[in-house]
Specification:
heterodimer; A: 208 residues; mainly alpha; 10 helices; flat; disordered C terminus; B: 70 residues; 4 helices
């Protein structure tokens, strides 16, 4: 399902879920779980992991979403665009939390190893100095830029908003984009405003 | 002349300063672009040079292109 299914279906399932009907979770699961796993996989790329980890993150995110929707914690959850925003934010946060946890554990392990070696503390000093003297942006910076760019696109889902953002970024006019999607210029402008709203964080949700 | 493009500064200093371009700057550039702002206007809004804006836009397009091919 997902971006190909009629928006009305998603809206109905969301209404049912918000009304406390657990059966509505099934079609949403079928349509979105795979995408959440892919999203989590991308976020967990930096750490050693098993395939189960990304599925755990996606599962946990979907569970939080269902509970939040049932408890009325997402007031602006009306259509598939809203749905993807919420799922994206929850999954992104959970994956990042997992990365932070793993990184912290790895660092603690390294400290323990270095601390047990004679002169271990000095071994790491040349690396730090080399990194500071490098004229190239650090890998962390490159990774941050790449992640932010990818995140902006992912926030828009796989549908029309994403296509419009890419075209606009490539320099297409609103009129040209309108022709591509067979919509009026005001309709394109509304979509662009929606994109900006998502990125500005005006579409905020109360998350656990 | 902006801090990250000043040739009088050592390369490593410029590189470090460039890193201060936070993720929020990239997001702001993308938002401006969705508004239809020109590169000059975007540069004015984020307080960077047009060259920096052009570089960021190229980076965004490249990364988006790669993401779209996945």
């Amino acid at each position: 399902m997902d971006q190909q299914s009629p928006d009305g279906s998603v809206t109905i399932w969301l209404d049912q879920l918000k009304a406390g009907d657990p059966a509505a979770a099934k079609p949403l699961w079928d349509g979105y779980f795979g995408r959440l796993v892919s999203l989590a996989r991308g976020r967990l790329r930096a750490i050693p992991r098993a395939a189960a980890d990304e599925e755990d993150v996606a599962l946990s995110a979907f569970d939080s979403f269902c509970r939040g929707a049932t408890e009325g914690r997402f007031p602006r959850l009306d259509d598939r665009d809203d749905l993807w925003q919420v799922l994206f934010v929850i999954t992104d946060r959970k994956a990042k939390g997992q990365v932070r946890h793993e990184t912290r554990q790895k660092r603690d392990t390294r400290r323990a190893v270095h601390g047990s070696q004679a002169g271990g503390g000095a071994d790491s000093a040349p690396d730090v100095l080399a990194a500071k003297a490098s004229p190239e942006p650090s890998p962390e910076f490159v990774a941050e830029v790449t992640e932010e760019c990818a995140k902006l696109l992912e926030m828009l889902g796989d549908g029309q908003l994403r296509e419009i953002a890419v075209w606009k970024m490539e320099g297409y006019t609103n009129e040209e984009i309108g022709k591509k999607i067979d919509r009026s210029i005001p309709a394109v402008e509304r979509k662009l405003a929606m994109i900006r709203g998502f990125w500005r964080g005006s579409v905020r949700y109360e998350l656990e | 002349m902006n801090w990250n493009e000043n040739p009088d500064l050592p390369a490593e200093v410029r590189a470090r300063l460039l890193e201060r371009l936070a993720s929020s700057t990239i997001r702001e550039v993308a938002i401006c672009k969705m508004e239809g702002a020109t590169n000059e206007e975007i540069a004015g809004r984020i307080g960077r040079s047009v060259v920096t804006v052009e570089r960021l836009l190229v980076a965004i397009r490249c990364i988006w292109q790669r993401e779209s091919m996945r």
